[in-house]
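User: Run a structure prediction on this.
Assistant: Running it now.
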Amino acid sequence: MEALKIILIQTITVAPPVLITAVGACLSELSGVTNIGLEGMMLTGAFTAAVVNYFTGNPYLAIVCGMVVGALMSLIHAVISIHLKGEQIISGVAINLFAVAVTSYLIKVIFKASGSTPAASNHPNNLLVIFLIYLLAILSYFLVYKTVFGLRLRAVGEHPLAADTVGISVYKYRYIGVILSGVYAGLGGAYMTTVILSSFTNNMSAGRGFMALAAMIFGRWNPLGAILASLLFAFGQAISDYTKASGGSVPQEFLAMIPYLLTLVALVMFGRKSRPPKASGKPYEK
């Protein structure tokens, strides 16, 4: 029972980066814009939070700054996808590649080091941050399915022409959906460098943005489903971490694969059955 208790606590602790990013992915997709760039938005959010926390000693300001940078990165994707009607997948991949390069470069420029930033000395109230992230994720479900805003957001992702005909601004709601996804991804990244760790290392998001997309698909584009899927992936991570710490005979390389294997299994089992919003990934022409 003690082992199960430790694993469950670890699950709740490690889930937030993927969980909140997956909820953000739902908001973007439900508005009709595919956001593959979540990995890059998490990475830049994590880097920004680490730098701000190191220089100011204020982890809460660091988290907010991480969210702002995530929003700015998503704004770039929104302009390319919505106004310029560019290829959304290519835009997202470009953001991911840019994030890896720019964070690595800035570590060298700012800290005259390579690979990681110095550790910050201050941490937020971890329980408070975890609680607020879970609360935000759950409130996002009610925002999508219990409010007029959510109805309009889903309308522009399903039938943008019909929504436009009745006076709903397709561009406005798509911008909001994409920017919120960036804010959430930035928050997920900031969590990694303020709560889980106190510093940034190159490419530390380690595919969590893509795991968030898998959680979104597993959860059938529903924020609540994405939350549950993220908790499943985190449970796999917690089992892996616990087994490593307890010195089991299972090779560590295999244990590190567990969360990613769960992601692949989820996609294989549920990917075909899941139906995205009808206009997802399709630029809207007025």
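The mean pLDDT is 91.
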